[in-house]
Design a protein that fits this description.
The chain is α+β, with helices and mostly antiparallel strands. It folds into two domains: about 70 residues, no CATH class; about 35 residues, no CATH class. It has a four-stranded antiparallel β-sheet with strand order 2-1-3-4, covered by helices on one side. It is globular and about 45 Å long.
């Protein structure tokens, strides 16, 4: 589903990420841990395509399509998003509706199944 090959990111003359390789298969969930300044957020921003976080080397491949040079809005349309440690609070919206906002298909029954049993 997501493959990162030799990703290198430099910002303000400093190497933040060097030759990162990662493969995430469909249905897998990863947590990336490390001390402050290790590059965790920078990796997430590079995958998302945030301004100023375009890779200097390497490739980002999502569902078989190279997205390394796609703008952030095109990556979002493919279903890529960031989950925040402190999620935004929206008045008047249910958790269910919030979770379905980014879904390609609005399937409430599938959402309920995933939340109660986990992905298959």
């Amino acid at each position: 589903m997501l493959r990162i090959q030799d990703l290198t990111l430099k910002r303000r003359g400093r190497t933040i990420l060097r030759k990162i390789n990662l493969t995430v298969k469909a249905g897998e969930i990863y947590g990336i841990l490390g001390p402050n300044g290790a590059g965790k957020s920078s990796l997430a921003y590079a995958i998302m395509g945030c301004d100023g976080y375009q890779s200097n080397e390497g490739k980002i491949i999502f569902e078989g399509q190279e997205i390394t040079n796609l703008p952030i809005w095109q990556r979002a349309k493919l279903g890529i998003t960031l989950a925040w440690q402190e999620p935004a609070r929206f008045e008047g919206i249910t958790v269910e509706d919030y979770l379905l906002l980014g879904a390609k298909e609005k399937n409430r029954l599938e959402l309920e199944e995933i939340l109660t049993e986990g992905p298959s």
